[in-house]
Write a structure and sequence with these properties.
The protein folds into two domains: 2-247, Spore Coat Polysaccharide Biosynthesis Protein SpsA, Chain A, CATH 3.90.550; 276-419, UDP N-Acetylglucosamine Acyltransferase, domain 1 (3 Solenoid). The protein is 22% helix and 29% strand. The protein has nine helices and 32 strands. The strands form six sheets. Strands 14, 15, 17, 18, 20, 22, 24, 27, 29, 30, 31 and 32 form a twelve-stranded parallel sheet that branches. Strands 1, 4, 5, 6, 8, 9, 10, 11 and 12 form a nine-stranded mixed sheet that branches. Strands 16-19-21-23-28 form a five-stranded parallel sheet, with no helix packed on it. Strand 25 (375-376) and strand 26 form a beta hairpin. The longest helix has 18 residues, at 191-208. The relative contact order is 0.11. The structure holds guanosine-5'-diphosphate-alpha-D-mannose. Guanosine-5'-diphosphate-alpha-D-mannose binds next to strand 1, strand 4, helix 3 and strand 11. Residues 7-9, 13, 56-58, 85, 88-91, 94, 114-117, 152-153, 169, 179-182, 223, 247 line the site of guanosine-5'-diphosphate-alpha-D-mannose. Belongs to the transferase hexapeptide repeat family. Its main location: cytoplasm.
Length: 420
């Protein structure tokens, strides 16, 4: 019997995702037409023997989370529960705090998945590797180029045995081009080192603060406190993948992840991809259209377009490399490229909404999406255009490389601006 834990974090973690995280918890942001973590849930549900999926985070449970849980339980016919941390406990603290729930029913092993990654989740191959040679920790690793590797956990392995010999979280100088994907398979013994870290932290806390007000109580950083500490002791192994993988930290990376998942739908969910039908819109490449969306026949969509529930797309609209969220309206002849149009927003006739893609270098197979800050030297970097929820763009204007905060009613064109 197996279980899976998805680490969904909490509200203050989604800063690079603003203004989109104002409306919906980041793990529920639609990527390729479904909530970001539905891709995780689908992958877990496909592993034979999966008994339960637990989401651990510090979000206040709200309507959107409850609705997601109910729908997912029904669809996958599996218990899927949310366990709320009383405070942010770090990537390992929640696993230790909820250890009884994770170990209930004596699972043989459990997957741990970061919510903000996009992957083809090779969980069954990880499980096969674990069953061949069981170890407490199995990490999924992939390669990155030297510069980008510094943004991730870096792994030095023994190439023969794949044992992790050395682990450094986001090093300041180059350590290894193998990076941690944030996808793990742990055996129940993995909780013992977590207990040791917890107990050590408690002792340190007593030394540091006899009043018991130490703010980090219960916090465990899986990467630094466990992986770095235990590397080279025969407990941590890496399973390398060359499948799709990307982090989803910013809105731009959500759009890139959407492209990766839409590409995968050809094999996994062909029914989710729009097809050209007589009298329907022209479809180019991979496009998702929610069944309730109304798309005019003269619109041209794709590649990499995802259209949400109740969206209206008018005559002559051109839409490429974009996500249009629930209830938005694109009036006749608008052109939307490399952009995210927020919930309930309206783009007026003949308006052009355009962003600049920041995709990984296509000539470097080890390149990943750069999810760095929006600014450099005090200037907004060119990036995709984002319209927050219920924004109104008038007819015949140009909105280029800009971020428009929710509920704004614009009256003219804007370029390279954050419109507050
Ligand atoms: N439950 C819970 N989840 C958390 C907490 N803090 C972070 N998380 C979740 O844990 C995951 C990792 O979040 P970060 O702490 O932001 O780390 P990171 O910068 O994404 O780096 C991690 O992931 C990389 C791969 O994407 C790794 O390369 C890196 O080593 C590390 O594991 C995310 O899914 C986030 O939601 C917490 O206090 N509680």
């Amino acid at each position: 019997m197996l279980k899976a834990v998805i680490l969904i974090g909490g509200p203050q973690k989604g800063t690079r995702f603003r203004p989109l995280s104002f409306e919906v918890p980041k793990p529920l942001f639609p990527v390729a037409g479904v909530p970001m973590i539905q891709h995780h849930v689908e992958a877990c549900a496909q592993v034979p023997g999966m008994q339960e999926i637990l989401l651990i985070g510090f979000y206040q449970p709200d309507e959107s989370l409850t609705r997601f849980l109910e729908a997912a339980q029904q669809e996958f016919n599996l218990p899927i529960r949310y366990l709320q941390e009383f405070a942010p406990l770090g990537t390992g603290g929640g696993l230790y705090h909820f250890r009884d729930q994770i170990l209930a029913g004596s699972p043989e092993a459990f997957f741990v998945l970061n919510a903000d990654v996009c992957s083809d989740f090779p969980l069954s191959t990880m499980l096969d590797a674990h069953r061949c040679q069981p170890h407490p920790f199995l990490l999924l690793g992939t390669t990155a180029n030297r510069t980008q590797s510094l943004n991730y956990g870096c792994i030095v392995e023994n190439p023969q045995t794949h044992e992790v010999l050395h682990y450094v979280e986001k090093p300041s100088t180059f350590v290894s081009d193998i990076i941690n994907c944030g996808i793990y398979l742990f055996s129940p013994e993995a909780l013992k080192p977590l207990r040791d870290v917890f107990q050590r932290n408690q002792q340190d806390r007593q030394l540091e603060d006899s009043l018991g007000l130490w703010p980090g109580a219960g916090t465990i950083r899986l990467e630094q406190d466990v992986f770095s500490a235990l590397a080279g002791q025969g407990q941590i192994y890496v399973h390398l993948t060359d499948g799709i993988w990307s982090q989803i930290k910013s809105a731009g990376s959500a759009l890139y992840a959407s492209r990766l998942y839409l590409g995968r739908y050809q094999f996994t969910h062909p029914e989710r991809l729009a097809k050209h039908t007589p009298g329907g819109p022209r479809i180019r490449g991979n496009v998702y259209i929610h069944p309730t969306a109304k798309v005019a026949p003269s619109a041209v969509l794709g590649p990499n377009v995802s259209i949400g529930e109740g969206v209206t797309v008018g005559e002559g609209v051109r839409l490429r490399e974009s996500i249009v969220l629930h209830g938005a309206t694109l009036q006749e002849h608008t052109c939307v490229l490399h952009s995210i149009v927020g919930w309930g927003s309206t783009v007026g006739r003949w308006a052009r909404v355009e962003g600049t893609p920041n995709d990984p270098n296509p000539n470097d197979p080890r390149a990943h999406m750069d999810s760095e800050s929006l600014f450099k030297d005090g200037k907004l970097l060119p990036a995709i255009t984002i319209l927050g929820c219920r924004v109104r763009i008038p007819a015949e204007v140009l909105i280029l490389n800009s971020i428009v905060l929710p509920h704004k009613e614009l009256s003219r064109s804007f370029t390279n601006q954050i419109i507050l």
